[in-house]
Structures are given as structure tokens and as C-alpha cells.
Amino acid sequence: MGKLIKKREGITLIALIVTIVILLILAGVSIAMLTGDNGILSQAQNAKNKTEEAERNEKLDLLKQEDLINETLNRVEVEQVTDEKPGELEKEDENTLVINSIEDLVFFAYDVTKGNNYSGKTVKLGTSLDFNSTKSYVDPLRTDYVKYGYNGELKTLLTTGEGFKTIGTIYDSDVSMNHFYGVFDGNYNTICNLYQDVEESDKVIITGLFGTNNGTIKNLQIKNVNLNASTNNMYVLIGAITGRNAGKIENCSSSGVMSIKANGNTGIYAGGISGQGSATTENNVNKSFSNIKINVETNNNDALTIGGIGNAGGKLISNCYFNGKIIVTGSKDNEKYIGGICSGATEIRNCYNLGKIEVRTEENSIGKTTYIGGISYGTNNINNCFNIGEIECYNPHSCVGGIGANEQSGNIVNCYNVENLTLEGENKIYGSLVGVGKNLTIENSKWLIGTAPSSVGNNLGDVTDNSESVDDLEKIISVLEVINGERAFKEDTNNINNGYPILSWE
Question: Is residue 75 in some structural domain?
């Protein structure tokens, strides 16, 4: 009996071992089926990858179809970028770096913002770039740019939400030296469809393609921008090329729309090229133009300062023109300083304005004045300039001049105004050349009779006015003789400016 029990125990043990072995084999087979090269999990992962790749390819196909539609409508063909190392600037030589894709531009903006000021370096735009076109990206759907501030698909984030993060410091902060100090050469290329939407902040908003420029920006076109800024109780400095310019800008242009909403105790500095200028450089803006529309809804108590090209603080603006619109609306009373070229600079030379300026603000009891100049709000010296842009001001207190609004000192030489000034309000002062003048000399300048009652609206003293009136538009050809003291202008032989003179570089 004992032997039988032992025999049964042995058989049971063998059966157990066999069962375990079989289970291990089955488990191995199951694991292999799950995790092997042809396993269920691998096949599931492969299926997932293929689905994601198909969805990605479908997205890319849709984006490419959008590109084709946009190129057809805009009659512009964008070239596919070729960039072997997107997000890394190509070295042309030791001191010259090249941007070849949107990814490179994003990296460049981040790099300046983080403290690389590129002093002594030249950064060139190797090709035209369009934020709305997949052809300007190596990978428009990439999601690995979180460190640059883009948490999601790159193209989507650059064209919606806050949009492109400006080159250099966006807000005025303790890290105030994170600005560009090198040379940015657009290389006669274009950046299209730049989009930014900066909402209210507890810091000063400084925005545009560049935040602050302390170097040189040249040979660059910015087309079809869409810039938006809204703030409560903080300042806004906004320009298509740069929010603040303490360097030089030459041979640049901008077009598109700029929209600003201001509330509370805040001031606005806006310009088609530069939001705010600086008198620290010899030539702030030269050979540039803007066709941008600047819309401002002003419900703020502090000053509003707008220039079609540059803005307050600039030392010299020369050989420029403005062909856009400046539209100001609002309900609060504040000082408004607006110039077709600049709201205020040390000198404006060889410039003209054919853009429209319109201000419509509600009646108030405070009595603050709106100043509008076809060329400038107030500039020490205005030479060789003319205005053919419409000016309309519907404000209780206004001071308007076809050339300068409030010229308290200096000279106006070789200037011309032929456009009517339209004002409505209880207290209005306007002159075809100057609104208010004091300690001012006007030499060799002409104005069209009917544009205003006189050349100077209000003479506060010591104004020497040697201007002449013209009573017939047929005589307007003489404008070239008046303004061309430095031979900066030429005849409009191709009728691109309705027969009025154009700058020699156009």
C-alpha cells in the first residue's frame, strides 16, 4: 500500500511538472504572439502608427490644397524651403548666418529673447517665407518646439492664438537687454502673413517682427501682417518691423492691418514701420514705406501717438512714404499725436504722405486736443515733403496742419500741401501747412487755396511765413520744383502716384 501511494505521488509530481512546462510553453507562445515582430501588440502599434501617419498625410494634403488655393487667389507662388537642419541657422561664414525656414526664424526669435544679441553678426533671410504656407516649413505639423513656446502643431500656433513670438523681449522687463544688436538683412526677400495677438498684460507690450531693434534692419518686406494688441493700464509699443527702434531701418516696407484696443491709464505708440523711435542714432528710418492700416480704439486716458512710418523720439526719417490708413475711434478724451510720416522726430526729410487719417471720438468736457499733421505732429525741421493724403478730424478740440500740426520751433522748407482738411468740433485750429506755429520759419513752400483758410492756423509768435498759395490744380506739376531741393524725387512717368512726384528709389 505504501509503495502504491509513493508511485501515485511520483506520477502526480511528473504531471505537475509536465503541466507547468506546458503552461510555460503556452505563456511563451502567448507572449510571442503579443510582443513579437508579428505579435498582436506590435501589429496594434503598427496599425496605430499607420493610422497616425495616414491622418498626418491627410492633414498635409489638405494644407497643400489650401496653399494652392491661396497662391491662386493671391497670384503669388511660394517656393518650397530646403533646410537640412531646421531650427539651426546655416553659417555662410564666421559672421554671417542664414535663415532658410520658418523653423529657423522661430529659433532665431527665441535665441535673441534668451540673450543672444548677435552683436557683430549678420543674419540674412535666405528665402521669402509665408507663415500661412506649408512650403515655408520643413514640417508644419511638428510638435517638438515646446521649448520655444509652441506647445502643439507649429503652423497652427503661429497662425492662431498669440501667433509668432517676437524677436527679442516681448514685454519690458528686468531682462531689458535681450534685444537685437546685429544686422538683419532681408536680402530683398519677403515675410508674409505675420500674425500676432497680444492681450492685456501687467507689463509694457513691445511687439512686431522685432521687439526692440538696437542694430540694423534692411532690405526687408513685411506683407499682409495681422497685428493685434489690447491692454488695460499698460503701454503698447507696436510696429510691423519693430515695436521699438533704437537702431537703423533701411529699405523696408509693410502692409496689412494693425489693431489696437487701449483702456484705462495707458499710452499707445504705433507705427507702420516702427512703434517708437530713438534719437540716439543718426538715421532711424530711410528709404522705407508702409501701406498698413492702423486701427485704434482708444478708451484710455493717456496719450495716443501714431506715425505712418515711425514715431516719437526718432532723430531722422528720410526718403519714406505712407500709403495706408490711420483710423482712430473711442469714447475717452486724451491727447492724440498723429503724423502721416511720424508723430514727432528731430527731422523729416524727402518724404510724402498719401494715406488717409481719420479721427472720430465722442464729445467730452475735458478739452484735450487731437493733433494731426499730414507729415508730422511736431518736428523741428521738415524739408522737401508734400502731403496729398486726406485728413478728417471729428473731435471737439483739434489742431491740424497739412504738413505739421504743432510746430513750435525750427524750419519748414520746400514743402507742399494740396489736400483738403476736414474738421468738425467747437474748437478747431487748422492751416494748410501748419496748425499752430511758434518760433518757426517757413521757406519756399506752397499750399492749395481751399484746403484751409490760411497757411498757418494759429500764429503764436515769431513765425516767418514765406509760403505761397496756389489756386489751380493744373499748376500742381510745380510741386516737383518745390520739393526737389536734394533731387530725392523724380517725375511719376509710369503714373504710379497719380502723376505726383515719387522718390528716386521707387
Answer: no
Does 11 share its domain with 150?
no
pLDDT at residue 384 is higher than 80: yes
The single-letter DSSP state of residue 191 is: E
C-alpha cell of 403?
A: 504738413
Give the pLDDT confidence of 14-65 residue by residue, as tens digits.
Answer: 777 777 777 777 776 666 666 666 666 566 666 666 665 666 666 666 767 6
Beta partners for 260? 229, 296
Find how far residue 498's CA is from the centre of its chain: 28
| Residues 388 and 450 reside in one and the same domain | yes
Regarding whether 133 and 35 lie in a shared domain, the answer is no
Residues 64, 92, single domain; the answer is no
Residue 261 — left, alpha, or beta (φ > 0 → left; ψ -120 to 50 → alpha)?
A: beta
Q: Do 123 and 117 touch, CB atoms closer than 8 A?
A: no
Instruction: State pLDDT tens for residues 260-308.
Output: 988 776 788 999 999 988 766 666 899 999 999 999 988 866 778 999 9
Which DSSP state fits 18?
Answer: H
Does 41 lie in the same domain as 101? no
Radius of gyration of the chain (CA): 32
Flag the least confident range among 136-145, 172-181, 191-200, 430-439.
Answer: 172-181
Q: Which residues, in sequence order, are bridge partners of residue 258?
A: 227, 294
Which strands, in side-by-side order, build the sheet including 304-307?
A: 205-207, 236-239, 268-271, 304-307, 336-339, 370-373, 397-401, 427-431
Same-domain status, 26 and 151:
no
Taking the model in full, what pTM does it have? 0.86
Decide the pairing of beta strands 502-503 and 96-99: unpaired
The partner residues of 232 in beta bridges, in order of sequence, read: 263
Cβ atoms of 169 and 198 closer than 8 Å = no
Q: Are residues 178 and 232 in the same domain?
A: yes
Distance CA 357, CA 288 (A): 19
The average pLDDT across 305-334 equals 87
Q: Containing domain of residue 12, as a range?
A: 2-70
User: Which residues make beta-bridge pairs with 416?
Assistant: 386, 446
What's 373's DSSP letter? E
Please count the other Cβ atoms lying within 10 Å of the Cβ belonging to residue 427. 12
H or E element: which one contains 481?
helix 479-483
> What are the grid coordinates assigned to 309, written together?
512710418
- pLDDT at residue 235 in the model: 82
Same domain, 36 and 174: no
Rounded to whole angstroms, how far apart are CA atoms 352 and 114? Answer: 39
